[in-house]
Design brief:
This protein is mostly helical and about 110 residues long. The protein has one domain. The chain contains six helices and two strands. A two-stranded antiparallel ribbon has the order 1-2. A hairpin with a 6-residue loop joins strand 1 and strand 2. Helix 3 runs parallel beside helix 5 and helix 4 runs antiparallel to helix 5. The longest helix is centred in the middle third of the chain and has 27 residues. It is elongated, with a radius of gyration of 26 Å. The termini are far apart. About 10% of the residues have low confidence.
Length: about 110
């Protein structure tokens, strides 16, 4: 990057002293990777938060799980999906089996399937 562009960008002291580094190296790639990791983490934590709130637990237990999920970034989410979810009775198989059977509109009996 020419020094005149840096000077026009308000970095004239940097140009005068010769300490401006025109090459950023791998900094943009590292920053992009960190942004991707943070975005994935936020999406997973948000999903876990909604899952905790919809699990039908007591307020104190839900609050404890929410603290664990948000304050222990990786460990809290893994703990919720491995043990907290199983303890709440809202595992995907339980939910699926509960919604898979619905009453028949004719009144002759239940219809299985989704």
């Amino acid at each position: 990057m020419p020094s005149t562009l840096l000077a026009e960008a308000g970095l004239s002291e940097c140009v005068r002293e010769g300490v401006c580094a025109p090459d950023l190296g791998s900094f943009p790639a590292i920053r992009a990777a960190a942004g991707l990791v943070l975005t994935v983490w936020f999406a997973v934590v948000l999903y876990a938060t909604v899952d905790v709130l919809l699990a039908g637990q007591g307020a104190a237990r839900a609050a404890a799980w929410l603290l664990a999920v948000w304050l222990l970034p990786v460990v809290g989410v893994i703990a919720w999906f491995r043990s907290g979810r199983a303890g709440s009775g809202s595992s995907p198989t339980t939910w699926r089996s509960a919604t898979a059977t619905r009453p028949d509109r004719t009144g002759t009996g239940p219809v299985t399937g989704g």
